[in-house]
Each structure stands twice: as C-alpha cells, then as structure tokens.
Give the backbone structure.
Amino acid sequence: MGRTHTLRDIAIGCLVVAVLAAIPWMLPGKAFQDFVIRCASMALFATSLNLLVGYTGLSSFGHGLFYGLGTYSFALLMQKTTVSLPLAFLLTLLISAATAVVVGAICIRLRLIYFAFVTLAMQMLAHSVIISWVGLTGGDQGLQGGIPRRVVAGIDLGNQYNLYLFSAAMLVIGLLLMRHIVATTFGTSLRMIRDNETRAAFLGISVWRVKLTVFVLAAVFASVGGMVMSLFVSGAYPELINWPISGDAIFAIVMGGVGSFLGPTVGTMILLLLNDVVTRQTEYYGLALGLIILLFALGLRRGVLDFVTERLGGRPAGGVH
Amino acid sequence: MRERINRRTLLAGSAGLLAAPWIARAQSNPLKIGIQSIFSGPIALLGTSSRGGIQPEIDRINAAGGLLGRQIQPVYRDSKGQPQEAARVARELVNTDGCEILLDAEASSGAFAVQEVVRDLGVLCVHSNSETSSLTADPKLRVATAFRSTRQGVHDAIVGGAHSAKVATEKKLSRWATCSPDYAFGRDTTAQFLEFLKHFKPDIEVVSQSWPKLGQPDFTEVITKILQAKPQALYSALYAGDLSAFINQGNVYALFGAMQVFVPAMGDLPVLTAIKNLPPGIQSAARYLPTFPDTPANAAWYAQYRKANGNDYPTNWSWESATAMRFIEAAVTKAGSTDGKKAAAALEGLTIDSPFSTTGKVTMRAEDHTLIDYAIGWGTTVPQPPFVTGIEPGDWGQIFELETEWKKKNGYI
C-alpha cells in the first residue's frame, strides 16, 4: 500500500470528521451525538480486537480487559489525582501497554483455544480484582461520583458537543493508525502468521515478537475506546471490564465482517442500532439479538461488509480465505 | 426517525409564532415521563414490581384530568442492569423521546450513572429504588434536581442495630455470626449493622463471618460453618432468591432453632411466599407489608395493587416507586411547571399524605433530597400470613441523631 493510499485515507478521515462536526448544526437533537460517542468507543474496541482475530488469527476472548482497564485507569486518574486530561490519557495508554506486555507474554505462547481461554481467564482475573478492591474502585457499585473533565486549552469535554467531536476525532485517528499498521510490512507479517505460522518463522519472522507487538498495540487502541466510554458515562463500572463486553466486540466483528478493515465499525453500528431499536420495543432483547445473529451466521455466513465486498466482486481487504 | 424530525421542526416552528398558540399547544401535549429500570433477566422483578406501583398512580392522575391539564404518558425502558446502558437510556429518554421528567427505578449502580446524566441535563429526577445512602448523603454526589424516594441503608442499619441490641439484651445474646453476600452491598450493610449494634450494645463478640457468592445454589458449607462456631445470634444481609434458598436449606439443618436470627430483607412478600416452611421467631425488618403500618390506607393500597397487577404481590420497590410518582405529581402541581429547577424547588421539603408511613405523611427532606418519616420497623416471623407480627416502628428522632453523627464521621457534613 503506497503513500498515495495513506494520503487518501487521511483525506477521507478529515472529511468524515468535518461532516460529523457539521451534522449537529443541522440535526439539533442530542441523540445522534450520543450514538456517535458510543459508536466511537465500541468501534475502536472492536477494530482493535480485529487486529488480533482477523489479521493475526489470535482469537482473544479477553480483549475487554484492556477496554475496561482504559475506563478504570482514566477515570481513577481523573478522579483521584490532579493530573491534566492529556496526561491522564497518556498515562492510561502506558498502563494498558505495560499490562498488555505482561498478559501477552503469558498468553501468546499458547495456541488456538488455549490462547482464547487464557485471555478470558486474564479478563476474569481483572474483573475479580476490580470487584474486590472496593476501596479504590468502589467494587461492584462502580466508581461513583462522576469524573471531573478538566478543561484543556479552552476545550471542556463536559460539553456534549465537544465530547462528541473528541470521540469522532479519536475514532478517525484510531482507525487511520490501525489502517496504517495493517498496511505496513508489519501488517503483512501478521497475515502471514495467521495463514501459516511455521512458514513465517522459516522466513525469518520472529513470530513471538510480532504477536506480542500486535497484542500490545491492540490493547492500547482498546483502552482509547474505554476512555471515551468513561467520559460518556462519567465513571467506570465493573460491567465494562466483565467478559460479556468482549463478547459484544466479537459480535460486532462477526456481524460487520472479519475480513474487511471497516467491518468491525459497521458491525458496531449494527449492534448499537439493534440494541437501541430493540430495547425501545421489547424486553426480550436477548432473544431478538440471538435470532439476528443466527440469521447472520446461517444466512449470510459472513459479516455484512465481507458479504457486500464479495458481491461486488472484490476480495476482502484482510484476505480471509 | 422522519416522524420525529417533523414533530421537532413543527415545535420549533410554532415557537416562532405568537406565544398564545404555543402555550395552547403545550397544554394539549402529553407530559412524557421517562421510567427506566431492569425489566429483563434475573432481577426483572425490580422493574415489573416498580411499574406495578407507578402505573396505577398515572392512571389515577390521568383519569382526574392529568397533571397541569396534560395527560401523563409514561415511557418505560429496560437498562438490562448495565450502568452504561442506564446512562444511555436516561439521555435517550430526555433527548430523543422528549421526556420532561425522569423516574429512575434502577438498582444502585444504574442510579449512580443516571445521577451523573441528570447533572448534565438538569431535568427533575426521582430515584425510586437505590437505597445506597451515599447517593444523597455525599455532597459531592448530590445533584440539584435529583431526589430519592426510598428507604436507605443507614436508616435501616440504625433501626436494625437498635432493635437487635434490645432483643440481644433481653435474651443475653453476645456471640454473633454474620452471613451476607460477597460484594460491596453485602459487606457494607453488614459492617454498618455491626457498627450500630455495638453502639447500642458494646459487649458483643463476632465469632464467625461467612460471605456466600451471589446466586450460590448450595449453602451447606456456610450453614455448617455457622453451626460449628456455635453463635447465639446470626445476622444476614442475604435477600431475594438467595435468602429464600438459605432459609429453605437452613431449615434442613435446624439452623433457626439453634440461634436467634436477624434478617433485614425478610419482610418482603415475594421472599416470604417463596419459603416453604417459614421458621417462626426470625427477627425481620418490614420492607413492605400490608400490615405495617396497619392502617386502612395501606390495606387499600395493597388491595388496589394486587387488583391492578394480576394478583401479584407488591414489593418494597412498589411502594417506593409509587411514592416517587406521588412526589412528582405534588411537586409539578405546586410549581405549576415541569421545569427542572422550578419543580425541584417545589419538591424540596415537601410533605405529602402517604399510606407508607406510620404518621400518614412522608417528607422529602430539603437538605439532602431524600425521603424521611416512612414506615420502618422490625418484627417477628410466624409461619402463616401476615408472616411478620409485633412490628415495632423505629424512632425517627433517634434515626436523625445517629444519621447526623454518621454523616459527620464520613465527612459529609
């Protein structure tokens, strides 16, 4: 992928942010903004998981650990210390990366189902720590009392429109960076490891190092999603680090398409729209969602974006066989 | 979506016209009240029994011509018990559905999330189920337009401590054991109870503490541990399904004959009716009982609830949610407006008639936006209806005094 592609992607990204920035002036309701904020948070999380699942063939069931870690680290730094917002943001990235190095070093040596289960176990461990450490985290009641949004350079994220713009920008920047990662030779190594790990090793790729690197990168992007969520709910709750949240990201990937870069983002939009529409109509949300996922799995047999790309005669960007 | 935009455009358009038709239009508009709770999953009873308390109140108000001449249109929504969903739903109810008031029937974690949203939106909100004291006691958490219409943890702990100390002195109970669910609520409630118990009777000794997991199906291990410690008294903060299971299994080991048991969450009809052989002599708080207060107003409310809800039993959450609706009605009527600030000003310190009080009146305390003077008391279980008898009401004077001390100790005042 050449330089022109990168420039084109950046141009598209800027255009998306500009359009999103303009929409509230035409559509005064705040519902759309709420939707975009949640979408940004979840799409960053799902896309980062797809770096592992779709591009490297690492089926992590515990990626929510880093999403939750993002919400808790950021919320705690803002609530219990006086650091500025950008510093809290950077520190959270560092905390997530450091945790991912440790967790990754243990997990990536394992393959397939063992990897999946150990990542899940790690997340459950983190969830238990959050629940038990009542003094710091508030335990099962969550971190209460709201998080102060300290003003940075005249920008107050307590203002809904500012938070909306911030979230949209985070999403676009995050997606561009991840897009860049998979387009580099490093990205090619990922796909090679996914398709044939032994061959990749023979070609001189340090499989272990590449896997750990992508694990840490994915964790960092997931924690950005977590931070957006903690700003939205003004707190941090154990549900955000519990294992069903990892399941949500996997659903988003499955629905959107594991083989397309934007698949998880599309999947997130579908999932959130379904959630919002179905919960407005009925109390049987789980039943409705289950049926729709069955329809995707048995009917389309692939995510929406993969399906569309194939119908248009193209090959999914991720090149999933 | 299209319909919504049209309505919005229409409203915006009509605002630009003369003031008179605008007001006329507002009056003929339904008044939407957003009501969120958990309506699905294992704790769906929270939502359904809250709705059971709210809907008859709305029907009554609407039949009498509505609130400020406008028919109330409730918008019920399920948060599935997730705080981030609770926050989203609260925003959606106000921003998208056009609700002017929120009646938040969420459990505590959801209520704290809603509280932060209300801080941003500035609408009137009454929490009708969260009993965690800090929601209103902690000045950092308090929100100008948010109130709470429920009993609360610290009141229960004071009355429970005073009552249990009295029974303990009479029966000379000094060796105590506790058995409570292993999460923040269980541990906090137990610690608070012991604190007030020791305040009234300093010479007690805690010989065993068990922390069963939430939803644990088998309590054998816990029950044998308690029996081995040979306590004279047992306190348990278990509730709902866990409590029924614990009592049913404890019966097999004759646990309740071996010691005096104190259970604050016992006096709620769904629990009492789910136990096969209710052991006599358990000391229990009344959460909601048709016989406490033993007044015609309470009996009438109970009968009307069961009639309106397919013969279901009301829960503690039902009276709390019905009370929320009555406060909303009174405050909006007094303020003559649904505006958050005006209605909140009207609600501060407001006293209304209520079947759920031994004095027939409950008050929304102005200083911390929380309910006082509601029915609170402890009694003794009997195997047949009314299940709990000899209920002694708590002393509100004593509650206020110790609550103030507790607030000072926690740095709230």
Remarks:
- Chain A has one domain: 3-241.
- Chain A has a mean pLDDT of 85.
- Chain A has 14 helices and no strands.
